UniProtKB/TrEMBL annotation:
Organism, as annotated: Formosimonas limnophila
Annotated function: Peptidoglycan polymerase that catalyzes glycan chain elongation from lipid-linked precursors.
Superkingdom of the organism of origin: Bacteria
A single GO molecular function term of this UniProt record: pentosyltransferase activity
Primary gene name: mtgA
Known pathway: Cell wall biogenesis; peptidoglycan biosynthesis
Lineage: Bacteria, Pseudomonadati, Pseudomonadota, Betaproteobacteria, Burkholderiales
Protein name: Biosynthetic peptidoglycan transglycosylase
Length: 234
C-alpha cells in the first residue's frame, strides 16, 4: 500500500526543494542587483512603523560577505550560534532546553533557534511563537542548509537581521550606531552589536545599559574561539 504513495511523496518533496532553491538564489540575486527585496519581517516592521509612527521606510543597505568585518561574523556566531559551522542548521539540544523553559513558563518564551533557523523565520515566516511554526521553521531550515553554503547563509543573515527600530543589516547598524561601515567595525563595536540581537529595539533605546556593556565583554572573549565560514562559497 505504501508503495502507491511513496513515489508521489518523494517527487513532491523534490519539487518543493527545487522551487525553494530557485527562490533563495533569486532572492540573493535581486539583492546584489540593488533591487533589495524585503524579508517577511522587514515588510511587517515597515508597515508597523508607518501605521504607528508615520515613518516611511527602514534603514537597510546590502553589502557582500567580503565587505562585512570578520569581527562582526565572529561576534554574532559567538553570541547566537557557537556551533554554526558544524551543525546542519538545527541544534536539538538548544531546542530541548527551550522546550523545558517554555513548559515551565506555561507559554513560548524561548525558541532555541540557530542562525539558520532565525534566517528562515525572518525570510519567510511570522514572528509568532508556537510549536507549529517551529516545525515549519525546522523543515525549511534543513532545506536551506542543503542548498546554500554556510557563507551565503551568514551573508544573508547579517544583511537582513533586525538591529534596532527600523534598522536592518550590518551596514545600516554600523552607520546607525557607530557612523562607520560594516567592513570597519572593531571587535568591541561588533561585540556590542551582537549582544543587541535578541532584543534590538530594547537596546536601541537603552544603549548605555550596564548589561549591554557587561555582556559585550563576555562576547569579546568568546570571539577568539568562534569559527566563521571562509567565504569561498559566496
Amino acid at each position: 500500500m505504501w508503495r502507491n504513495w511513496i513515489k508521489p511523496f518523494v517527487l513532491s518533496l523534490l519539487a518543493i526543494l527545487v522551487v525553494f532553491q530557485l527562490w533563495c538564489f533569486a532572492w540573493v540575486g535581486l539583492y546584489r542587483l540593488g533591487l533589495a527585496p524585503y524579508t517577511a519581517f522587514m515588510k511587517s516592521e515597515q508597515m508597523r512603523l508607518l501605521t504607528e509612527k508615520g515613518r516611511l521606510g527602514i534603514e537597510h543597505d546590502w553589502v557582500d560577505y567580503s565587505e562585512i568585518s570578520d569581527n562582526l561574523k565572529r561576534a554574532v556566531i559567538a553570541s547566537e550560534d557557537a556551533g554554526f559551522v558544524e551543525h546542519d542548521g538545527v541544534d536539538w539540544n538548544a531546542i530541548e532546553v527551550a522546550r523545558k523553559k517554555n513548559d515551565k513558563a506555561g507559554k513560548a518564551v524561548a525558541g532555541g533557534s540557530t542562525i539558520s533557523m532565525q534566517l528562515t523565520k525572518n525570510l519567510f515566516l511570522s514572528s509568532n511563537k508556537s510549536y507549529l511554526r517551529k516545525a515549519e521553521e525546522i523543515g525549511m531550515t534543513y532545506a536551506m542548509e542543503v542548498m546554500l553554503p554556510k557563507e551565503q547563509i551568514l551573508e544573508i543573515y547579517l544583511n537582513s537581521v533586525e538591529w534596532g527600530e527600523g534598522v536592518f543589516g550590518a551596514e545600516a547598524a554600523a552607520q546607525h550606531y557607530f557612523k562607520t561601515t560594516a567592513a570597519k567595525l572593531t571587535a568591541q563595536q561588533a561585540a556590542k552589536l551582537a549582544v543587541m540581537l535578541p532584543a534590538p529595539k530594547k537596546y536601541d533605546a537603552n544603549r548605555k545599559s550596564p548589561y549591554l556593556a557587561k555582556r559585550a565583554n563576555v562576547i569579546l572573549k568568546r570571539m577568539r574561539a568562534a569559527q566563521i565560514p571562509d567565504g569561498e562559497g559566496v
